[in-house]
From TrEMBL:
The lineage of its organism: Bacteria, Pseudomonadati, Pseudomonadota, Gammaproteobacteria, Thiotrichales. Residues 5-96 form the TMEM205-like domain. It comes from the Bacteria. The chain crosses the membrane at residues 42-61, 73-89, 109-130. The keyword Membrane applies. It is found in: Membrane. Its main location: membrane. It comes from Hydrogenovibrio marinus. Pfam families: DUF4149 (PF13664). One of its GO terms (cellular component) is membrane. Keywords: Membrane, Transmembrane, Transmembrane helix. This is TMEM205-like domain-containing protein.
C-alpha cells in the first residue's frame, strides 16, 4: 500500500506542475519569466521523480519482489525522466542562453520544447501504467 501512496504522490506532483502550474504561469507572467520559473520547478521535479522511482525500485529489490520484466514500465519512467533532466533540458537551457532573437534558435528551441513535452507525457503514461499494474497485483495476489 505504501507503494501505491508513493505512486499517487508522484502522479499528483507531475500532473500538477506539468499541466496545472505551467499554464497558469504562462498566463499570468511574461513568456520569459514563466519559462525561467518552470525551468526551476521542472529541475526540482525531475530530481524528486528520480528519487521516488529509485526508492521504489530499491524497496522492491530489498523485499525481493523486484522482477525486471514486471518493473520495466517503472524503469522506463526513470530513463525518460533522466533523458529530460540530463539531455533535453540542458539543450533547451543552452538555446535560451544564446541568441533567441534568431529565427533558427527559436525554431530549434520550439522543437526541443515539443520533444520535452512528449517525453514528459510518455513518462507520465508509463508510470501510470506501472501503477495500475501494481494496483491490480495488490488486489489479486499471486
Amino acid at each position: 500500500m505504501r507503494l501505491l501512496l508513493l505512486c499517487a504522490v508522484w502522479l499528483t506532483a507531475n500532473v500538477t506542475i506539468g499541466y496545472v502550474v505551467a499554464p497558469v504561469l504562462f498566463k499570468v507572467l511574461g513568456k520569459m519569466q514563466a519559462g525561467q520559473v518552470m525551468s526551476v520547478l521542472l529541475n526540482g521535479l525531475y530530481f524528486f521523480d528520480l528519487a521516488i522511482i529509485l526508492l521504489m525500485i530499491f524497496g522492491l529489490m530489498l523485499t525481493q519482489k523486484c522482477h525486471i520484466k514486471r518493473e520495466s514500465w517503472l524503469i522506463a519512467s526513470a530513463i525518460l525522466v533522466g533523458v529530460n533532466q540530463w539531455f533535453i533540458s540542458p539543450k533547451m537551457e543552452w538555446l535560451k542562453l544564446h541568441d533567441m532573437k534568431g529565427q533558427v534558435m527559436q525554431l530549434s528551441f520550439m522543437a526541443w520544447h515539443g520533444v520535452s513535452q512528449v517525453v514528459f507525457l510518455l513518462t507520465l503514461l508509463s508510470f501510470a501504467f506501472w501503477s495500475y499494474k501494481l494496483y491490480r497485483r495488490i488486489q489479486q495476489p499471486d
